[in-house]
Amino acid sequence: MTDVRTAIIIGGGIAGPVAALALKRAGITATVYETYPNTAGGIGGTLALAPNGVAALRIVGADQLVIDLATPIHRTVLAFGANRIDLPVLPGVPPLRVVHRNALSGLLHQRAEAEGVPIEYGRRLVDARQTPTGVTARFADGSTASADLLIGADGVHSTVRALVDPQAPGPRYTGVLGFESVASHPVDAEPGTMTFAFGRRGYYLYWPEPGGGTRWGANLPQQRPLSLAEARAIRPAEWWNRLRESYADDDPGAALIRTSDPDELQVSGSLHIMPRVPHWHRGRMVLVGDAVHAPSNSSGQGASLAVESAVQLARCLRDLPDLPAALAAYERLRRARVEGIAARAARINQAKAPGPMGRVVMPLMMRLLMRVAMKPERILGPEQRYTIDWAASAATERSPA
Asked: Is the bond leading into 118 cis (omega within 30 degrees of zero)?
């Protein structure tokens, strides 16, 4: 085991509390520092947890909590106009689980606090200084904290990433804004069915809510990225009007927008992905989750990969003889997997914000997706069947193909 006994975790979203729980199981004491004053800030919308993500949560004892909270998705459908294509699913794996990010984060915070993991809110990191034996974090309120290791779980706009490597790339704007709401309009789909629809002017998805109505999410093309604060400074009714205009020619898109309450519209702001990050760690600082690998939401794997990386980092710190070896092993076990999934999602994501030729390209994209879907074991098997063997040593594990 490394000499790491204490850790500072910056970021209390998804990867942060999971990392703290996994570190506790590895014999390392961690404190989570979260910028926001609580977990109910409304940041983000609904996210998906793939079977591999739920399997990783099992290691920290949070899988059943998520299963009880989330909505299972047993069937996925691709729609383009009147065409509907059922996408094959992997046999023998649990369903996709969809859950609101705030709800998942709150659940993980409760789990961490129940196990004695300290979580401090309203603590925004501004700098960190390393020594040969430790690292000290400095926060905006003037306070500091010191530990053996600092973990950046602070999302795509990570402060820690710039401390690890001042030349590191920032997040890449995908060209779309995200929105979400629940419509009273019922769709012609069985419960547990998620439909990915390519409208005439924008992409959207929807599924029946267990309690009634239809939950939908939309990606509107937008030339200039907007921060979350900028997007939310615009009145919801204005966004609602723009959504109504964008989906006026779509079925059921038009009805979904029309029967949604503008005041309940969830604005997620600009959607970003992370390009390849050259350096995942430096000295006593390391990155996990979206701070280092944030694929397009087309992957359905963003949250799951974040959970996996948090668990694998703890496992490497437990099993490798020193910190440099542990961080190198962590990157070796994670990089190829997350970058491969991100590359697959990027190809799909190009279809979400079509240009003038979109109506020509979309049918071709459908045929391509269908060819891919005909081989789900080859494409999705390595992603969704992946499990971390917590009991085995990370020191001897081979990198996933």
From this structure: no
